[in-house]
Amino acid sequence: MKTTSPLRIILGAFIMATLALILPAAAYSENTIEDHIIETETGIYYIVQPGDTLWDLSQKFSDSAWLWPDMWNENQQITNPHLIYPGDRIKLYRRADVNRVQTGVTKPMPAGKTYTYHDIDAVGFIRKKALEPDGTIIGVKRSKNIVSDYDEVYITPLSGRTFTVGEKYTVYRTLNEIADNESNAYIGIQHYLLGVVEIMQVTPDVAIGHIKKSFRAMAVNDKVTPYLERPAIIEIKESVPGLMGKLISTEDHHNLIAEYRTAFIDKGEIDGIEIGQYYTIFNKIEDRVVSSGKEKTITIPPQKMGSILVLHTEENTATALILQSEPGIEDWAPMGTPF
Prior knowledge:
Layout: H1 6-30, E1 37-40, E2 43-47, H2 54-62, H3 68-74, E3 89-94, H4 95-103, E4 114-116, E5 125-127, E6 135-140, E7 146-147, E8 152-157, E9 168-179, E10 186-202, E11 207-214, E12 218-219, E13 223-226, E14 233-235, E15 244-250, E16 262-265, E17 278-291, E18 294-313, E19 318-325, E20 333-336
Antiparallel strand pairs: 1-2, 2-3, 4-14, 5-10, 6-8, 6-13, 7-12, 8-11, 9-10, 9-13, 10-11, 15-16, 15-20, 16-19, 17-18, 17-20, 18-19
Helix pairs in contact: 2-3
């Protein structure tokens, strides 16, 4: 009768234990990033895996690690951005963002066509004179300072203003005044749109509103103004011939001016700017050289750096969607009629 030596039994057990440890890791390593993504009615979520950081996830899903604060802002359940744990759900895009990605295009379209931009309600603007708000958010029902989707907020009306149940209001914030980078001439005040609230109850002193949409983080002391619906389908129109202006900055003041971000330009309705026109961002370089003993300035032909589509117009400014962008675009970059 053949017997098995104790040494062989021990060695076999060791091999089996080693395989048990290796195989799950190998199986895990074969998973793709899509295996950890969940799509729901409220957006797309990523399930945190061991070793993940907001920095890395921002690089994966936003093409820039430097945008991790946006991801943190979108996930207010994260108290410390440097500590996320396996199994946590990270919200990647709002549902409106998903639609935008699916329907967006990266090339300007000829006149007679249309462009659908589902985030139109979130498009802010620069206006010479600040809006007169109808009220101010003074508190949140759950006693927190940051307001998000589905929260109930307390709104106090300004003098002479009244609220009615069922009315919708845009929540906004005014930022610093903006002046031209060269002449320092006053341009206007940025109005930063944050979300939409619907009035659910009215009392003698305050109104109670329900946050219907949240574009960006809202807070106590933000203002409200009547909601005006803007069409998401934009008809493409001919650009103004010979127009020259500047791209002031992106709406969120990102250092990286990239595709599908919104930005302001210093031309508006008085210059013939209309919703649906597209323009070119370019760089204009001047180089000084010495020729035949004399100093001479040579202007290098402008180089196309990107394209924008106008989404909203004011008297002297407009807000546009960046459709195409090359690395190196900076605030106050020249823009003008496509060439």
